[in-house]
Amino acid sequence: QGQLVESGGGAVQTGGSLRLSCAASGYTTSITFMGWFRQVPGKEREGVAAIWYTTTTLYADSVKGRFTISRDNAKDTVYLQMNNLKLEDTAMYYCAAARQYGHRWWTGEAFNFWGQGTQVTVSS
């Protein structure tokens, strides 16, 4: 059974930057589709960004132009570079993975595997 391990969360002021990492290990078949989601207590989970293989990237409107998702196949790691962070970006961020591309990625339904999450807190 594989696992996803997130890192890179923390506290930052508005306008600052963070880079989240998600390392995948132990999967016997290739993971082709990976994504980042976030959730605030009491609210629904929100799809933030996704990447299929290394070139097809997808973003929520709320983060377009500020966040960049990328993937390093050699390290089996996906990254989320977050710039110009806003108060509303505060959430627990989760990495997700799937063996194949799935439609409606933002719902999370396409993803089979999930990490434990890393907290991002943005303050003024």
What topology emerges from the helices and strands here?
Layout: E1 3-7, E2 10-13, E3 18-25, E4 33-39, E5 46-52, E6 56-59, E7 67-72, E8 77-82, E9 91-98, E10 113-114, E11 118-123
Parallel strand pairs: 2-11
Antiparallel strand pairs: 1-3, 3-8, 4-5, 4-9, 5-6, 7-8, 9-10, 9-11
Main beta-sheet strand count, sense and barrel state: 7 strands, mixed
Order of helices and strands: EEEEEEEEEEE
Q: How does the helix and strand content classify structurally?
A: mainly beta
Helix content: under 10%
Low-confidence stretches: none
Determine Rg (CA atoms, Å): 13 Å
Helix count, DSSP H or I runs of 4 or more residues: 0
Give the rounded overall mean pLDDT: 95
Number of strands: 11
Please give a structural write-up.
- The protein is 0% helix and 51% strand.
- The chain contains no helices and eleven strands.
- Strands 2, 4, 5, 6, 9, 10 and 11 form a seven-stranded mixed beta sheet that branches. A four-stranded antiparallel beta sheet has the order 1-3-8-7, with no helix packed on it.
- A hairpin with a 3-residue loop joins strand 5 and strand 6.
- It starts with a strand and ends with a strand.
